[in-house]
Write a structure and sequence with these properties.
Length: about 450
């Protein structure tokens, strides 16, 4: 059986950074700890005037192609996942291919290009498409380029404004991958929901609290569905569990639910019995509401136990580092969670070869997906090559006034001239509109 998975990853962050507790919260009249402790966010990335989903995606892809020594002839497929597209017909992947063709010999004429949309889960769905294409033997020895790129902006004053972010993740999907192999087994939890949507509008209509409930419900269903094909899960089976991370506080809730589910009828439930009792069973309650209330009570106690806190610190906390510094990257968010975990493992000198990750993706609207990944022998070389800390440290800090300007710059309804905050160097930039209202890009040395 061919092993298929992620061969390499690169990121590209928006070049500007906003300090949430120190710059954003005071102007909003909010306690800085709502950000650092409640949402788990410290800073978020924003795109400079000349950046957008195409430049960030193309720049991440170029870094990846350069590092892996690839040319367009090595790529048979370019899929872009985004929920920030500016065109209802022409896919972002064609713009990105056009950018890359400016700097490489050859072209992507015989590569299949597309754009995936299902809120934040589209990045993982694109991985799936690439995986299936290779497994079906249609790739002719070529790899797939999957790019998850988003500018997550909310309407000014919307509660979601606290969780914005911008950046791209580029992933190379190939046979005999150098980073992680994807499991064939996967589980879905999918329902028609109205929690977050953009009906032909740039900024989302969002019911934030509802989106959190829907996230948890669909994730639980996806886990049960995954277990129906892969067998029961147990907290000790997975070195890390990267979840879709719109903000780290969301993952705190998902992790607790996951731990409770995975420990039911296990040695861990037995160990915890004398301290917090056994988990409530639905059959013991007359109504669903009574059962739910009992479960909530159990979970409140569970989260204070030594066992849970230790597991959370080892398996979940390391997945949240990048997210807490860049905000929500929508389609890329679960992929930076995986990257965070593997960077933490490298920093701690852990031997990850053969270790398992359980990856939980989610998209509003709504669908969750769960699959496992096996870390490959060459993982450390791959992870050490990604320059996350350097990129994040190189961002230019903006004031609240600057933030208001940059939000307007990227607002499709507004036309304002703002001087760029940073100087582009060796990267793709947005240069303006063409005669058919297409966006135009160029590589600057
Ligand atoms: N110290 C510590 N924690 C604090 C705090 C303080 N001073 N002030 C607030 N908090 C906590 C709150 O208790 C809450 O945590 P909890 O959910 O565990 O109770 C958290 O910080 C957020 O505060 P809240 O008042 O709920 O924020 P909000 O009303 O601004 O809304 C979202 C938060 C997430 C709903 C909002 O940002 C949003 O709509 N985001 C976009 C949608 C989204 O990302 N959904 C996720 C699913 S994809």
């Amino acid at each position: 059986m061919t092993s298929v998975g992620i061969d390499a990853m690169e990121i590209w962050t928006g070049k500007l950074v906003l300090d949430l507790p120190n710059t954003f919260a005071p102007v909003k009249g909010e306690d800085p700890e709502k950000y650092t402790k409640g949402l788990g966010l410290h800073t978020s990335s924003f795109p400079d005037v000349y950046e957008d989903i195409v430049t960030m995606g193309a720049n991440a892809a170029k870094q990846l192609m350069d590092r892996k020594g690839l040319t367009p002839a090595d790529i048979g497929r370019i899929d872009v996942a985004t929920e920030s597209a500016f065109d209802n017909s022409k896919p972002v992947s064609t713009y990105i291919a056009g950018c890359l063709e400016q700097v490489y010999d050859g072209d992507f004429r015989h590569a299949n290009k597309g754009e995936r949309k299902f809120a934040c889960i589209a990045g993982t769905q694109s991985l799936d498409d690439a995986y299936n294409w290779i497994k079906a033997g249609r790739n002719r020895g070529r790899a797939a380029l999957v790019i998850a790129t988003d500018t997550a902006l909310y309407e000014r004053g919307d509660p979601g404004e606290a969780t914005q972010g911008a950046g791209a993740v580029a992933m190379l999907i190939d046979e005999d991958p150098d980073l992680v192999e994807l499991s064939t087994e996967q589980g879905y939890g999918s329902m028609d929901e109205t929690d977050f949507l953009k009906p032909n509008q740039q900024f989302p209509s969002v019911d934030g609290k509802r989106s959190m409930q829907v996230y948890l419900a669909r994730m639980r269903e996806a886990l049960e569905d995954y277990e129906s094909v892969a067998g029961r899960t147990h907290p000790d089976l997975f070195e890390y569990i990267p979840f879709h991370t719109p903000f780290p506080g969301m993952v705190r809730k998902a992790a607790l639910l996951g731990f409770r589910h995975m420990t039911r009828d296990t040695d861990i439930e037995d160990d915890l019995e004398s301290e917090i009792g056994r988990q409530p069973r639905e059959a013991d309650f007359e109504t669903w509401d009574d059962y739910e209330e009992a479960i909530r009570g159990y979970m409140d106690e569970l989260k204070t136990t030594e066992q849970y806190r230790d597991w959370y610190g080892r398996v979940i906390e390391p997945t949240l580092d990048i997210s807490s510094r860049v905000g929500n990257w929508y389609t890329g968010s679960v992929h930076i969670a995986r990257l965070s975990a593997l960077i933490a493992a490298a920093d701690e000198g852990k031997d990850m070869t053969g270790k398992q990750l359980l990856v939980g993706s989610y998209g509003s609207g709504a669908q969750a997906e769960i699959h496992a990944e096996t870390v490959q022998e060459t993982w450390l070389d791959e992870i050490e090559a990604v320059d996350v800390d350097d990129q994040l440290a190189a961002r230019t800090e903006i004031s609240f006034d600057d933030y208001e300007l940059i939000h307007d710059v990227h607002n499709h309804e507004k036309e304002i001239e703002v001087e760029e905050f940073t100087q582009p160097e060796a990267e793709f930039v947005f240069t303006g509109w063409g005669r058919m209202n297409e966006r135009r890009y160029e590589y600057v040395e």
